[in-house]
């Protein structure tokens, strides 16, 4: 396991700020004590308190003043409470703000429904001009943060709460539009398409049982990136199963289905129910029906698990 | 601009025009200072003030609210001289706060001036912002309240009154000043005050008259949004004061 997304973000941003004085870090009382950016660059760190909307709007003023503000709060508060601020500041104004949103999906586990966010893709992807990323693992998170800092363009970066597995390898300075994981894969099979931490974990688990299945991992999920991804996917396969920790409505599978007419696109998602019980991240996902069994169900009847295939549990490690 | 098929937010535009002229005069030659009309529905007043002060070179009147022109009923950054999109109430205050903070971080002395309506103070976002501004001691933030007493559906005092407004700002950690919002000289003096030594943001409570200058609508909540024909516009122009 590697650093959780939020920890990797804080460390990477702290490093970038060493050589880029335009970088600012804003938190809304959820950055934790001993935030590395606050320790290293106290003059450019602002804990604004529990004021998510004001934080995003303030960031617009800071960006217009020549800075590159990164703001962070839990996904449900960033995306839903500050939705209008995101629309106006990141979208309409096009301010160079990066919103980093941990606790996406149901990674908060026992924290309950108020702290879950299964709606962020639907909201943020509907705002034109915002680069949307759901990095898998520490290396992807660091690369996405670097991209946001270098380009100064509006970004929304979704991450979970817990420690993350190793990112898939790639070649080049930033994750590709489609990161192909096809060692041992066969043509004319159903292609797994993974989104985010849980989606990727589940696809990797299925591939461990059936390596002949191709797997396409997507890190960037805004419409321009998805259009390029869809074109690349269509060059190679006709049948796709998209796995994502999000509701079906407004999810990546529905977007890809529109971009892939004539292809078969199925969705494995978190469904439409409310996760009202406690438990670990994995247990809440099970309650929602987002697990390896659901992926196999979506793959049937074209693909079936080999006899005795293990239902690999998601590995979880809480960090606080 | 009210004499168009679309009409305009006339009452609040007329109440805020003197404030905007004074603020824009202060910032016209100072690229480090920014005026944000948070009560963006008074766009007609903003466009008029910007045109009168020479910031806006194009005459907005023939194009207000018209297709293919960017002088929309709430201002956005496609308008020359407008930096932030406002109209959804409350956002202008934190935009100005961020701007003011950026100047402080850059070691510059510019101001962030947010012009709000008194009805707008019913938005929670502005108090969230004031809390942050006071906590961060952003002394180059100036919040001006165009206290005209009206809002869309009636009078502020009837809908959600704001007693002890100056004391509220004081309690939030602001310096406060109360001024006649149509006394351009007094407003200019406030905006010209050197805030280098201040350690708190400033709230200016500017008492104004909704529909100022047009006796038929002065002080009336119904002036909030007005559509008139050309004949009435001509008649009103003859009596404007």
UniProtKB/TrEMBL annotation, chain A:
InterPro entries: PDH/Transketolase, THDP-binding, Transketo_C/PFOR_II, Transketolase-like_Pyr-bd. SMART domains: Transket_pyr (SM00861). This is Transketolase. SUPFAM superfamilies: Thiamin diphosphate-binding fold (THDP-binding) (SSF52518). Transmembrane segments: none annotated. It holds the Pfam family Transket_pyr. Residues 3-166 form the Transketolase-like pyrimidine-binding domain. It comes from Streptomyces bohaiensis. It comes from the Bacteria.
Automatic annotation (TrEMBL), chain B:
Belongs to the transketolase family. Its cofactor is thiamine diphosphate. Pfam families: Transketolase_N (PF00456). InterPro entries: THDP-binding, Transketolase_N. PANTHER family: TRANSKETOLASE N-TERMINAL SECTION-RELATED. This is Transketolase. The keyword Manganese does not apply. Residues 35-237 form the Transketolase N-terminal domain. Keywords: Thiamine pyrophosphate. The keyword Membrane does not apply.
């Amino acid at each position: 396991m590697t650093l959780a997304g939020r920890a990797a973000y804080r460390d990477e941003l702290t490093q970038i700020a060493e050589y880029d004085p335009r970088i600012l870090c804003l938190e809304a009382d959820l950055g934790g004590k001993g935030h590395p950016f606050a320790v290293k660059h106290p003059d450019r760190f602002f804990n604004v308190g529990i004021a998510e909307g004001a934080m995003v709007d303030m960031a617009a003023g800071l960006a217009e003043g020549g800075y590159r503000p990164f703001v962070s709060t839990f996904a449900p508060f960033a995306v839903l409470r500050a939705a209008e601020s995101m629309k106006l500041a990141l979208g309409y104004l096009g301010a160079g703000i990066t919103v980093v949103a941990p606790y996406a999906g149901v990674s908060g586990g026992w924290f309950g429904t108020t702290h879950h966010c299964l709606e962020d893709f639907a909201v943020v992807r509907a705002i034109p001009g915002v680069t949307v990323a759901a990095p898998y693992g520490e290396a992807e998170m660091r690369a996405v943060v670097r991209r946001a800092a270098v380009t100064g363009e509006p970004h929304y970066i979704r991450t979970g709460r817990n420690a993350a597995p190793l990112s898939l390898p790639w070649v080049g300075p930033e994750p590709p539009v489609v990161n192909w994981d096809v060692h041992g894969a066969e043509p004319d099979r159903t292609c797994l398409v993974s989104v985010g931490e849980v989606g990727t974990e589940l696809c990797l688990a299925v591939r461990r049982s059936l390596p002949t299945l191709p797997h396409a991992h997507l890190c960037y999920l805004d419409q321009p990136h998805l259009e390029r991804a869809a074109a690349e996917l269509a060059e190679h396969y006709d049948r796709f199963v998209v796995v994502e920790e999000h509701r079906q409505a407004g999810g990546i599978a529905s977007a890809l289905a529109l971009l892939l007419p004539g292809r078969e696109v199925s969705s494995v998602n978190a469904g439409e129910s409310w996760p009202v019980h406690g438990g670990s991240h994995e247990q809440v996902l099970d309650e929602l029906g987002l697990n390896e069994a659901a992926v196999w169900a979506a793959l049937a009847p074209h693909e079936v698990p080999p006899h005795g295939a293990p239902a690999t549990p998601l590995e979880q490690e809480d960090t606080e | 601009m009210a004499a168009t098929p679309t009409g305009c937010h006339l009452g609040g535009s007329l109440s805020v025009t003197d404030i905007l002229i004074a603020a824009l005069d202060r910032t016209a030659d100072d690229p480090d200072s920014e005026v944000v009309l948070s009560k963006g529905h008074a766009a007609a007043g903003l466009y008029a003030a910007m045109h009168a002060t020479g910031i806006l070179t194009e005459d907005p009147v023939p194009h207000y609210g018209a297709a293919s022109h960017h002088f929309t009923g709430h201002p956005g950054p496609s308008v020359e001289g407008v930096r932030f999109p406002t109209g959804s109430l409350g956002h202008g205050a934190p935009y100005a706060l961020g701007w003011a903070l950026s100047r402080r971080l850059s070691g510059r002395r510019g101001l962030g001036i947010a012009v709000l309506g008194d009805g707008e103070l019913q938005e929670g976002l502005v108090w969230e912002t004031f809390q942050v501004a006071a906590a961060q001691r952003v002394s180059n933030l100036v919040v001006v309240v165009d206290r005209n007493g009206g809002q869309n559906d009636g009078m502020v005092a009837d809908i959600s009154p704001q007693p002890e407004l100056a004391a509220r700002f004081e309690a939030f950690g602001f310096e406060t000043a109360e001024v006649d919002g149509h006394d351009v000289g007094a407003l200019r003096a406030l905006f010209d005050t050197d805030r280098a030594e201040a350690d708190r943001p400033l709230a200016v409570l500017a008492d104004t008259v909704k529909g100022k200058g047009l006796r038929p609508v002065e002080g009336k909540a119904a002036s909030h949004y007005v559509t008139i024909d050309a004949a009435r516009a001509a008649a009103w122009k003859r009596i404007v004061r």
